[in-house]
Specification:
It contains 15 helices and 17 strands. The strands form three sheets. An eight-stranded mixed β-sheet has the order 4-3-2-5-1-6-7-8, sandwiched between helices. Strands 12-13-17-14-15-16 form a six-stranded mixed β-sheet.
């Protein structure tokens, strides 16, 4: 059914509670006990579209989106029609929902949103922005007749709206301290929430290697548990122009000299997780050519992405201590030297844990803010950085656009980090100004 003339699907969507942006306008629903009741109601009245396809369900503190995109590319190279749901988006809402790598068309998304709005009207259920997007995506995957859906968790796992579907394959990339106000103060607490996506009978692909956390996942009684560095992993991880060259192993096969078209040594681990997830999904070893094609074609915008030629900007949505440490390691490994870092951060993020690894690779910080009620103001951010890194030069910029313009006026190279809500607007500005993501003759090799 098409949305009727006069129905503004995006305005209707934006009228719902949005925890990503920290808004509930025009109405605010008080925070209550976590529940899957709302999303379950939506899906039931939409005809239970989630029963039409199997799911690879992915959670973790870092690497979820990259693993989701790698897994989807590999399964696509194997000849399957693959739906992908990721969040948040960088520039356009449509990015969150894709089939065979192509984002949903705007009118098609509006049609799905209209269908959800009819359920809301009929049932009186009061879903969140994220729950609506999950329902719309699941309905679209059924309409598009996908063979499999690769779905990234929004937050945690146990009570995430995506968990209204029981995934035949559950993937946990890693467990770190992030979103502690929602998931708990310790890694064990967070592991327990993420383990909530594991259902009896599923295959668990566990990328987290801490043996102290293993019993938490074993307690979920997966049919098979593949643990990184024991059952699958990386045998060799070497820098290559524009990515990594890796040798991987899984329970069923070895895959040698694969090119991963993403930068940073951590993408080797992500590739191993993705190959294991794809192998678990199809139930057998993959053809080496399929793995090679999938990993070579993967793209993950805003994740150690080099944009432009002259000037050169590295965009990375490093938004927690582990992400910041990965970015710093990448810059050190490439002998990039100290670079200006444009930074924005949400108020709930562990800023000391982020600035610690970034300060040694920053020639200066340019603090800015993004239009999100959860964001630190530029002034607050700058003040905190001055305390955390007393010898650092810290500047203020009133907006992401102002930050990149002022920074590139002084330097031919820059880094932007701290939040995907910063990376999206900067990426749009740089590309609109003529920059395009590409390999650069003077770009870091990895």
């Amino acid at each position: 059914m098409s949305a009727p003339t006069g129905f503004d699907a995006r305005a209707w969507l934006d009228s719902h509670v949005n925890l990503e942006l920290g808004v509930g306008a025009p109405r605010a629903r008080p925070r209550g006990a976590p529940t899957l009741e709302r999303i379950t109601t939506l899906l039931t009245y939409l005809g239970t579209p989630q029963e039409e396809w199997p799911m690879v369900h992915i959670t973790g503190t870092n690497g979820k989106t990259s693993v989701a995109r790698m897994t989807a590319r590999i399964l696509g190279a194997a000849g399957l029609r693959v739906g992908t749901f990721t969040s948040p988006h960088l520039e356009r809402l449509e990015e969150r929902v894709a089939v065979d790598g192509e984002p949903i068309a705007g009118p098609d998304l509006d049609e799905m949103l209209y269908a959800v709005s009819l359920v809301e009207r009929a049932t009186g259920v009061d879903p969140s922005h994220f729950e609506i997007m999950v329902a719309a995506a699941y309905r679209w995957f059924a309409d598009a007749a996908v063979d499999v859906a690769v779905v990234e968790v929004g937050l945690g796992g146990r009570w995430d709206a995506t968990s209204a579907v029981e995934g035949e394959v559950a993937v946990v990339t890693n467990v770190g301290l992030d979103h502690t106000e929602w998931l708990g103060p310790t890694r064990a607490d967070i592991a327990a929430e993420k383990a909530g996506i594991v259902v009896p009978g599923a295959t668990l692909v566990l990328g987290e290697t801490d043996p102290a956390l293993l019993p938490i996942f074993e307690a979920r009684s997966p049919d098979r548990l593949w643990w990184r560095d024991r059952d699958f992993g990386v045998r060799s991880n070497r820098p290559a122009v524009g990515g990594r060259a890796v040798d991987l192993f899984t329970p069923a096969a070895a895959y040698t000299d694969c090119f991963v078209a993403l930068r940073g040594a951590h993408q080797g681990d992500n590739a191993a997780i993705a190959v294991a997830a794809a192998e678990a999904s199809v139930g057998e070893a993959l053809d080496e050519a399929v793995v090679a094609e999938g990993l070579a074609e993967v793209r993950s915008p805003g994740r150690l992405e080099i944009v432009g030629r002259e000037p050169l900007v590295v965009l990375d949505g490093a938004h927690n201590p582990a992400g910041a440490a990965t970015l710093a390691s990448y810059l050190q490994d490439t002998n990039a030297g100290r670079l200006p870092i444009i930074i924005a951060a949400m108020a709930d993020k562990d800023l000391p844990g982020m600035i610690g690894p970034l300060a040694p690779v920053a020639s200066r910080f340019i603090a800015t803010t993004v239009p999100n009620s959860r964001a630190r103001s530029a002034e607050q951010l700058a003040g905190e950085i001055r305390v955390l890194a007393p010898t650092a030069t810290v500047e203020l910029a009133t907006s992401p656009d102002a930050a990149v313009l002022s920074t590139l006026a002084q330097s031919p190279r820059a880094v932007a980090a701290g939040s995907l809500y910063l990376i999206g607007p900067l990426r749009a500005t740089l590309i609109a100004g003529g920059a395009t993501p590409r390999e650069c003759a003077h770009a870091p090799a990895v």
